[in-house]
Design a protein that fits this description.
eight-stranded mixed sheet, 14 helices, homodimer, Alpha-Beta Plaits, alpha/beta
C-alpha cells in the first residue's frame, strides 16, 4: 500500500464577495475532489495552530509531520536544498534576489525587472567567482548560484557561523537596502553579518562594472540576502517510518523542505509553478514513482496560491477546476480499494481579498482501502468541517497516513 | 474591522432535570444568539482542557489567549489590579474578606453578614492605617483597601516576598481561621507568611476595639486573606497584536485579568455584576469604544453564573433571555457584513445542580465579515458541537479573531 499526498498551495480561502460570499473551492466544479470526500473521510486542519498564518516552509514541514515550533531553522536552508546544494550541518543558507538599486542605495526593484534566467546566469558566473574569492579571504566557503529569473541562493560554509543575522532585503521597493546586523550577542553572529555585508558590497562592485548591465533595460546591480537558515535537525521520513518517499514540486522552497525530510525530488519537465504548469505530467511522475517503489509521494501544486496573491478569485476557481480534472485522470489510474491512499489538502489559506497567507484552517479529504468514510460528499472549507477527521493539526496527518500503511511503531506494550 | 467578544459567566450548563433534561441555553428563547449561530460559525470550547473546571481568573486568561498552565500566578494579583491598584512586579496581592470569628477563633460568617460597602469603608480607614504602620515596622509596604460589601484587597510590596504561602481563609463557615504557612522552603515564603500572620492579628486587634463593631448586628471582627498572587509575566495584547482593546465588566477579578492583558477597563454606571445590572449600558459602552478607536472589546456578564451558583435554573433561563435581548439591540447597531466580528461564549460551564464550575466545554458562535458560515442555527451546548469550528481550546479563540483582523504575524516565510 502507498500514499499520494496532494497539496494545493493556498487553495483554501475565505468567503469572497465577488463569488457571492462563497470560497473558490465552494464555487469550483470539483467532481473528483468531491469523490474523494464522498468515498473517504474529511476534516479541517490547522497547518500549524488555529489562527496562525504559516509560511510555505513552515506549513509544508508541518504537513510532512514535523512540528515547526520545534524544528524550524529558517527559510534559507530549504532554498539551498531545493536548488540541489547538499547543505551540511553548520552551513548557512540564504534566499537571494537580483535587484535594482539607485545611486542613493534605495531598492527601486526587488526583482531587477524580473531578469531572465539566462541573463541572471551570466551575472552569476562573475558573482560566484567573486564570492569564492572573498570567502577565501575571510576564511569561509561562499557558494552563490541562481535558480529561476531573479532568484538565487547563497551558502556560507565554515567554522563559527550563525543564522542569527538580519536580512539586507528591505522587503519592499522604495526602501534602502539594509546592512546585515547580528541578532544576538555572539561572535558567530557578528562574524556572519560582517561576511554578508562584505559580500553585499563586493557583489555591487562586480555588478556595477559587468558589461551585461549596460545592455539590460533595468540593471541588476545588487543582490539582496534574506532568510538565513540552517539545516533543521529532523529525522528523515525514511528512518522515522521506514518508507521510501518522493516529491513533485516546481518550487525550490518546497523541494528543499522535502529534501530535508528525506524525500527524493523528482524533476518533472513542464512543472513551472505557474498557471501553465503541466499538471498531467506531475501526476504521471507521481503515479510512476508509486508504481515503482515509493511508499509515499508528496505532490505540490503552486498556482492556486499564485491566483490568491494576484487577488484573482475567478482564476483561482478555474485553476482549481484544472487541478480537479488532472486529479480525476490520476484517480482512474490508482486502485483506492486495495492499494493507494489519496489525501488532498492545502498547505494554508490564502485570501484572495488580502492576497496573504491567513491562519484559517484548510479542508482535507482522505480516501483509500481502510479509511472510515463519513457522510461528507463535497470538498470545501465548510463541508469538510463536518467530517470524520474533525479538526486536526498539520503535523497529525503523517502519523495518520503512516498508520494506515502499518508504519507507525506502537507506543507502550 | 474590530471585535466584540461577549462572555456570559458560567452560562453553559449540563442538562437540568427541572428543565426536562435540557440546558438553560437550550430552553431559553435566544433569537439573537441563534442569529449569530445562523450567519456565523460555531463550535465548542474547552476553556482550559477537557474535563478541567476553571476558575474565573484562569478561564478569562485563556479566553484572552494566554495559556494559564504557563502564565497563571494566582488570583490575588488580578483582584488587586481589578480594584485599580497599579500592581508592580514582585508585589503580592491577596483577595480579602471581612469575616465574623467567634471567641475560639472559628469563622462563623466568612462574609461578616454581607456587611455594607459603607460600613466596610469605615473599618478600612482604621485598617489601612494599621497595615501601613505594621508594614513599616516589618520593612514592607502594606496596602489594604475594600471593594464591594465584604470584599477587599491587600498588597504587600517590598524586597524578598513570595506568593508561595497558604490562605488564612478556611474556605467555609464553622472552621477555624488558619495560620498562614510557607508553601516552600524559601526565606521569602517564610517572611511573607510571618507578615500575613502579623497583619491578621493586628487587624483583629484593631477591629475588636472599633466602635462600629458595637453597632453592627454581626461584627466584622476579622479579615481573611487568600489567593496570594503576583503579576503574571504576559505580553499585553497591544504588543502581541498591535491592537487597542477595552473591557466592560463589573467583577474586579475579571477587570484585573483584562488589565493584566493590557485592556483599558471601562467603568459603566449601572453595571453591578448581579441580576439588576444594566445590560444596555454595558453594550452601549462597548459599542461606543468600538466606534471610537478600540479594535477589541471584551464584554463580561456575570449574573448567568450567579443564577447557577444559586441553583436557580429558571432564573438562569430568564437572565439568558435578557442578555439575548440586549445583544439583539447591540447587533442592530453593528455592521457584521463589513466591520465587526461578534463572538459569544461562556467562560466555563456552571452546573445549576452542583452550583459549581464544571469542566464541560462551552458553546461559541462567531459572526462577521469573513467567517465561513456553517449550517448550525441554534446557540446552545449541543447544537454548536456540530459547528464548523469543531472543538477548540479557550486560548485558540484570540489568534482566530486576531487573524480575521489581519493582526497575527506569519510564522515562517
Amino acid at each position: 500500500m502507498n500514499v499520494l499526498f496532494v497539496v494545493c498551495d493556498g487553495m483554501a480561502d475565505r468567503p469572497v464577495r465577488e463569488l457571492g460570499r462563497k470560497t473558490p473551492l465552494q464555487v469550483a466544479k470539483t467532481p473528483n475532489m468531491d469523490r474523494l470526500a464522498e468515498i473517504g473521510i474529511t476534516g479541517i486542519v490547522d497547518p500549524v495552530a488555529p489562527g496562525v498564518p504559516p509560511g510555505s516552509d513552515v506549513a509544508n514541514m508541518a504537513l510532512l509531520g514535523y512540528d515547526p515550533y520545534e524544528h524550524y531553522t529558517g527559510r534559507g536552508a530549504f532554498e539551498a536544498l531545493g536548488t540541489g546544494i547538499d547543505l551540511r550541518p553548520g552551513d548557512i543558507g540564504f534566499r537571494c534576489n537580483f535587484a535594482t538599486v539607485d545611486a542613493s542605495g534605495v531598492v527601486v526593484d526587488r526583482r531587477a525587472g524580473r531578469i531572465s534566467t539566462e541573463h541572471a546566469s551570466r551575472l552569476v558566473e562573475a558573482l560566484s567567482e567573486a564570492a569564492a574569492e572573498l570567502g577565501s579571504e575571510l576564511g569561509v566557503e561562499a557558494i552563490f548560484t541562481n535558480t529561476v529569473q531573479h532568484r538565487g541562493v547563497l551558502v556560507l560554509r565554515g567554522e563559527g557561523l550563525s543564522r542569527a543575522i538580519s536580512d539586507t532585503d528591505p522587503g519592499e521597493n522604495g526602501k534602502p537596502m539594509l546592512k546585515c546586523v547580528p541578532l544576538d550577542d555572539t561572535p558567530e553572529a557578528r562574524k556572519t553579518a560582517e561576511i554578508v555585508n562584505a559580500l553585499s558590497e563586493r557583489f555591487r562592485a562586480v555588478l556595477s562594472r559587468h558589461p551585461l548591465n549596460k545592455e539590460l533595460p533595468v540593471p541588476a546591480n545588487a543582490v539582496l540576502f534574506r532568510g538565513a537558515g540552517t539545516l533543521p535537525e529532523i529525522e528523515p521520513l525514511s528512518e522515522l517510518y521506514g518508507i521510501k518517499g518522493a516529491c513533485v514540486s516546481a518550487v525550490a522552497l518546497v523541494k528543499g523542505v522535502c529534501r530535508a525530510a528525506g524525500l527524493e525530488v523528482l524533476e518533472v519537465p513542464g512543472a513551472t509553478g505557474s498557471y501553465d504548469t503541466d499538471l498531467g505530467a506531475k501526476f504521471s511522475y507521481a503515479i510512476r514513482a508509486l508504481e515503482r517503489e515509493a511508499d509515499f509521494v508528496f505532490l505540490h501544486i503552486k498556482a492556486t496560491d499564485v491566483a490568491s496573491h494576484d487577488h484573482a478569485a475567478g482564476k483561482k476557481v478555474t485553476f482549481i477546476e484544472r487541478v480537479d480534472k488532472a486529479l480525476g485522470e490520476a484517480l482512474d489510474r490508482l486502485d483506492l480499494e486495495q492499494e493507494t491512499y489519496v489525501l488532498i489538502t492545502a498547505d494554508h489559506t490564502t485570501s484572495t481579498r488580502t492576497g496573504k497567507h491567513e491562519g484559517d484552517p484548510v479542508p482535507v479529504a482522505l480516501a483509500g482501502p481502510e479509511v472510515r468514510p463519513d457522510d461528507v460528499s463535497r470538498f470545501d472549507e465548510v463541508s469538510c468541517a463536518r467530517g470524520g477527521l474533525c479538526r486536526l493539526r498539520g503535523m497529525d496527518l503523517m502519523p495518520i497516513l503512516m498508520n494506515l500503511l502499518g508504519k507507525v511503531k506502537r507506543f507502550g506494550f
